[in-house]
Structures are given as structure tokens and as C-alpha cells.
Design brief:
CATH topology: 434 Repressor (Amino-terminal Domain)
Largest sheet: none
Distance between the termini: 30 Å
Number of helices: 7
CATH superfamily: lambda repressor-like DNA-binding domains
Structural class: mainly alpha
Order of helices and strands: HHHHHHH
Helix content: 55-70%
Number of domains: 1
Strand content: under 5%
Oligomer: single chain
């Protein structure tokens, strides 16, 4: 029937964390936005507690994203040049993307960043070629 509620909560939590960290916000700051403790934000981010619809709307607005992205990860503006959905963007993939972004941003050399980007593009192209065979 699809993913269970725990998997959905974990995926939503991972996207909340990724968006919060991309904006440089602490769990305490996000908690203040919702009128809850930072511990409650930890529970949301880990998928242990579910957000209320009203909280999801407030978070989307305050974290400069959409409810759709927080719910299913399919509206990351500016990341998919062709507007394609990020299929398979489960909690683990989002966590790894976050880790990759941190590592990429820590590279000081423009040439190294360009090399990483080129490698990624080649991997995507190779994957697309393998699917068409």
C-alpha cells in the first residue's frame, strides 16, 4: 500500500532538517517559530512525532519553502534544471545530499568544485544511458 506512517514522518523530518540547516537556523529558532521547544523540533526531524497541518504550513512559510516540498520533496526550486521531480528522494538520500552539499561548500578551490559538478553530471548521464538500454 505504500510507505508506512513512520517512513513518511522520517522523510518529512529529514526535509525539515535539511531546509533548516540550509538556512543556518538552529532547532531552538525553529521551535520559537512554532511555539514549541527545540526538543520537539528534534522529535519532528527524527520522525518520532508528526506535525499538525497548521505547523507544517507555518514551517513551510518560515523556512522559505513549500508544503509540497516538506511533504514529498518534489518542489525544490532551482535544483532540478528541467523541473523534474526528485524520485527516490527518501530520508537517506536527503541526508546524503545534505552531507554532499556541506562537503562541496567546504571546497575552497573553484576548479575542485567544477570537477565535482562535472563528475556528478557524468554519473547522471551514465545512469540515464543505462536506463535506456
Amino acid at each position: 500500500m505504500g510507505r508506512n506512517i513512520n517512513e513518511v514522518s522520517i522523510s518529512i523530518g529529514a526535509r525539515i532538517r535539511a531546509q533548516r540547516e540550509s538556512l543556518g537556523l538552529s532547532q531552538k529558532a525553529v521551535g520559537e517559530m512554532l511555539g514549541v521547544s527545540y526538543q520537539q523540533i528534534q522529535k519532528f526531524e527524527r520522525g518520532r512525532d508528526r506535525l499538525k497541518v497548521e505547523q507544517l504550513k507555518v514551517l513551510a512559510d518560515r523556512l522559505d519553502t513549500t508544503q509540497s516540498y516538506l511533504l514529498n520533496g518534489k518542489s525544490l526550486s532551482g535544483l532540478a534544471e528541467d523541473g523534474a521531480a526528485f524520485d527516490g528522494a527518501d530520508a537517506l538520500a536527503i541526508e546524503k545530499a545534505h552531507e554532499l552539499t556541506r562537503a562541496f561548500l567546504s571546497l575552497r578551490s573553484s576548479a575542485m568544485r567544477d570537477a565535482v559538478l562535472e563528475l556528478t553530471r557524468r554519473l547522471v548521464a551514465a545512469q540515464a544511458a543505462d536506463r535506456s538500454i
